[in-house]
Amino acid sequence: DPYARLLLEALKQSGCTVFNDRHFSCENCDGCVGGGFDAATSQIVLCQNNIRRQSHMNRVVTHELIHAFDHCRAHVDWFKNVKHLACSEIRAANLSGDCTLMNEIARFKFGLKGHHQTCVRDRAIRSILAVRKVSKETAEKAVDEVFDACFNDLEPFGRIPHSKADAKRAYRDFQNRDRYTANL
């Protein structure tokens, strides 16, 4: 999957190499979540009982790898600072493919103008509520306060990858990043 390949390479370049047997765990989970990122162990948990399709698993892996990337490159205070969590959830919803038009149509949720941003905001709030015992108002406030900055942080993709083809182009661009500035 080009999304995951790009993120794994970005993690490695950031000094956080991911080992499949150490950093990924398949488990049965409560509720209907597809996965999670455990910051204490830097481990991605895939909920094998809630993932039914390869495309869903690819999105979950990408979403959680974005959290792992944020954990690696920034000093994220996952447990005490809800704004940090909100920012990573915004980035994950924005960049993982969670809010593509096809996924939204499959959920019977779609609109025209500004729908991608609405989807990202809603999914970030839902994710915060799923992992933290905070009120909906607290989650909404945290998302609103950091939304613009975090929505516009497109690292390491450099763009919002709206499809696998976009993700492949982003991966090629990522691989060639240093070539553009090497002769300056």
Mind sketching the topology for me?
Blueprint: H1 2-13, H2 20-23, E1 24-27, E2 35-38, E3 43-47, H3 54-73, H4 82-95, H5 101-106, H6 115-131, H7 136-151, H8 164-181
General description of the model:
The protein has helices spanning 2-13, 20-23, 54-73, 82-95, 101-106, 115-131, 136-151, 164-181; strands spanning 24-27, 35-38, 43-47. The chain has one domain. It is built from eight helices and three strands, in the order H-H-E-E-E-H-H-H-H-H-H. By secondary structure, the protein is mainly alpha-helical. Strands 1-3-2 form a three-stranded mixed beta sheet. Helix 1 packs parallel to helix 8 (164-181) and helix 4 (82-95) crosses helix 6. The radius of gyration is 16 Å and the shape is globular. This is Mitochondrial inner membrane protease ATP23. Its EC number is 3.4.24.-. GO terms for molecular function: metal ion binding; metalloendopeptidase activity. Belongs to the peptidase M76 family. Keywords: Hydrolase, Metal-binding, Metalloprotease, Protease.
- The value of Rg in angstroms is 16 Å
Q: Report how far the terminal alpha carbons are from each other.
A: 33 Å
Strands across the major sheet, in which order? 1-3-2
Order of helices and strands: HHEEEHHHHHH
* DSSP strand count: 3
Structural class: mainly alpha
Model regions low in confidence, pLDDT < 50 over at least 5 residues: none
- Approximately what portion of the residues adopt beta-strand conformation? 5-15%
Shape: globular
Q: Roughly what is the average pLDDT, rounded to an integer? A: 88
**Tally of alpha and pi helices:** 8
Helix content: 55-70%
When the domains are counted, the total is 1
Largest sheet: 3 strands, mixed
InterPro entries: Peptidase_M76_ATP23
GO molecular function, one term: metalloendopeptidase activity
Pfam families: Peptidase_M76 (PF09768)
EC number: 3.4.24.-
